[in-house]
Design goal:
By secondary structure, this protein is an all-beta fold. It has no helices and eleven strands. Helix content is about 0%, strand content about 55%. The radius of gyration is 14 Å and the shape is globular.
């Protein structure tokens, strides 16, 4: 099991920036993929961005060019730098970890952090 603790959410005006952090309870090198997801009221949870243990990144079309996912292995922490925020970015943001062997993948979630972008 991996415990994940998110931080960095808050209220920001449109066009502003926030940086989210996700601290993992174990070494990132033992985790196949770390990701950020978000869920707005009345909508399904969606992928924002993810990063593999090898450093490959993947972004949702809606966040490309504005958001950057990164990792600090020494701190067991993954970050999501969010720039040029829009009101439609308002959601609860969740950190996710995928780990285990290829034939037995498991995943855990953080508790979420609220991001609110005012117009």
């Amino acid at each position: 099991q991996v415990q994940l603790v998110e931080s960095g959410g808050g209220l920001v005006q449109a066009g502003g920036s926030l940086r989210l952090s996700c601290a993992a309870s174990r070494s990132l090198s033992s985790i196949y993929k770390m990701g950020w997801y978000r869920q707005a009221p009345g909508k399904q949870r969606e992928l924002v961005a993810d990063i593999t243990s090898g450093g490959s990144t993947n972004y949702a079309d809606s966040t490309k060019g504005r958001f950057t996912i990164s990792r600090d292995n020494a701190k067991n922490t993954v970050y999501l730098q969010m720039n040029s925020l829009k009101p439609e970015d308002t959601a609860v943001y969740y950190c996710n970890a995928v780990y285990g062997s290829p034939w037995n993948r498991r995943n855990d979630w953080g508790q979420g952090t609220q991001v609110t972008v005012s117009s």
